[in-house]
Amino acid sequence: DGGITQSPKYLFRKEGQNVTLSCEQNLNHDAMYWYRQDPGQGLRLIYYSQIVNDFQKGDIAEGYSVSREKKESFPLTVTSAQKNPTAFYLCASSIAPAAVNTEAFFGQGTRLTVV
Amino acid sequence: QQQVKQSPQSLIVQKGGISIINCAYENTAFDYFPWYQQFPGKGPALLIAIRPDVSEKKEGRFTISFNKSAKQFSLHIMDSQPGDSATYFCAARTAGNFNKFYFGSGTKLNVKP
User: How far is the C-alpha of B1 from the C-alpha of A42, rounded, in Å?
Assistant: First the structure.
């Protein structure tokens, strides 16, 4: 089955701790994204990557970091610098380049809670 | 600022009724407009999508209407069912060198039996 796998489904973070959210896709998509979802605010782009070893900041990158060492993997680290990390995090991927009709396909999300 | 504005924030419809969700945008660089359906605790799933050179697209009970001159598009759910109760997001994609998606703030639909 082709798809996007996010893990873990639930994650608890203590104050001052860094945590890493996993995202793996077997769709052979070039582009991958991380979004944050808060109630009533829709999806906000944290980081995105078009190819291996390249990524760009989205609209709310502060306090987050990513890596793209493999095409199928795009982990997100929520650092202690992120002051309000409690949210639902969604990883997505899409075909690149943009010349074709293409949508973003999403994983099932990771709910991060600060304890 | 919000690149894609979506309304209403919530919607209650009786079973069998029509649900209508509206979105508006300003950026003329957007070239593709997907809609997503999200159930609680799950990731959004693609529902239907449209290009701006098409005024309407229908798939089953779901129809997108697109008004390019007004920079508005809407989702119509005909014969709404309780199983349609979910949050719906409109989105817009910028073309160019990279796919970048912008999402509306979401509409929580509740279809009453």
Answer: 13
pLDDT tens digits, one per residue of A48-69: 998 899 999 999 999 999 999 9
Q: Which residues of B touch A (CB under 8 A)?
A: 2, 6, 9, 31-32, 34, 36, 41-46, 49, 51, 89, 91, 93-106
Residue-wise pLDDT for B48-66, tens only, equals 999 989 999 999 999 999 9
Contact between residue A95 and residue A33 where contact means Cβ atoms under 8 Å apart: no
Core vs surface per residue B13-47: b (16+ CB within 10 A) or e? beeeeebbbbbbbeeeebebbbbbbbeeebbbeeb
All residues at 6 or more sequence positions from A10 whose CB lies less than 8 Å from its CB, including other chains? A110, A111, A113
Amino acid A57 reads K
Q: Does A76 touch chain B (CB under 8 A)?
A: no
CA atoms of A57 and A87, how far apart (whole Å): 18
Tokens of B79: 């014969």
CA-only gyration radius of chain A, Å: 13
CA distance A109 to chain B (A): 6
Alpha helices in B1-113 (DSSP H): none
pLDDT of residue A100: 61
pLDDT of residue A95: 84
Interface of A with B in 81-110 (CB under 8 A): 90, 92, 94-99, 101-109
In what helix (H) or strand (E) does residue A87 lie, and over which residues does it extend?
strand A87-94
